[in-house]
Amino acid sequence: MLTSITITRPDDWHLHLRDGEQLRAVLPHTAKQFARAIIMPNLKPPVVTTEMALAYRARILAALPVALQDHFEPLMTLYLTDNTPSSEIIRAKESAVIHGVKLYPAGATTNSDAGVTDIAKCYNTLAAMERNNLPLLVHGEVTDTDVDVFDREKVFIDRILIPLIRHFPGLRIVFEHVTTRDAVQFVTEVSERIAATITAHHLLLNRNAIFQGGIRPHHYCLPVLKREMHRQALLEAATSGNSKFFLGTDSAPHAQMSKENACGCAGIFTAHAAIEFYAAAFEQAGALNKLEAFASFHGADFYQLPRNTSSITLKKESWIIPERFDYSGEQLIPLYAGTPLNWKLV
Ligand code: DOR
Ligand code: ZN
Are 310 and 24 in contact (CB under 8 A)? Predict the structure, then answer.
């Protein structure tokens, strides 16, 4: 039986770090295992300019614990709005620390109110991204109220993504946190310029987890968990060795009281044991030998960044995930709180 695995140090290609004291609380969890992470810009107010991204980057670096300084690099992103000027894309590219621009359809998720109301309004900006080789990172869900919440990803492919790719064939796109068989199929078949991230929670859970003996707010995220057949398709894609699929946790912390609420926030916190969760999912699929490429190679290659040279080791050892973490004076309930996990980062 395999008792430990050593892989090239992984990166997290989709992460929410928040800001201030909350940033300080969650950052060490990520920095202890990942070398780099793509940092989501959905702060309040959102990170819409290069100047804001540079200031946020400085706050992240300042929040790193001493022992992890020089061991973690935040890869910054801009938040796309209806009014992002092309000149901002050039500034972002010249900064050399901004690696993508995030499209949130307005109203799709947490802090997306300032997002895009009509993709046609962004065509000049998208053309500038295509020219400057700056990837578009998409939250792939439509927000139309007539579309069923479980169908929003599939409808996004048909209504937004296909026309977008036709219009901007040179634009590199990351379809973030794919959750359906439809998205997996689409990414697999479409141009080389389109890739996708997959979260650990979408690999481990299907939508039954939201209603297991009662409503489970800590299993609520967006895009929402889907049927078992979709989870199977994600697992197949992640373990296939196909370089279009790579690790992005979408770890999204919210205080306990914001989750356990009449109108609870979307987001699952997984940073505390992210690589262990992926290891557990890959082991379930009998594909631990595919973990390294998914976690440590494919994302770096797609983002045209060097692969990491250091490594991490995971031991086969049962440990109990803490019930909660401190979150700036409030509590943060992690995924699988209080339950055992069979892999442990050394
Ligand atoms: O579940 C989610 N939480 N999905 C998102 O797209 C945003 C995120 C957050 O920022 O909390
Ligand atoms: Zn996200």
Answer: no
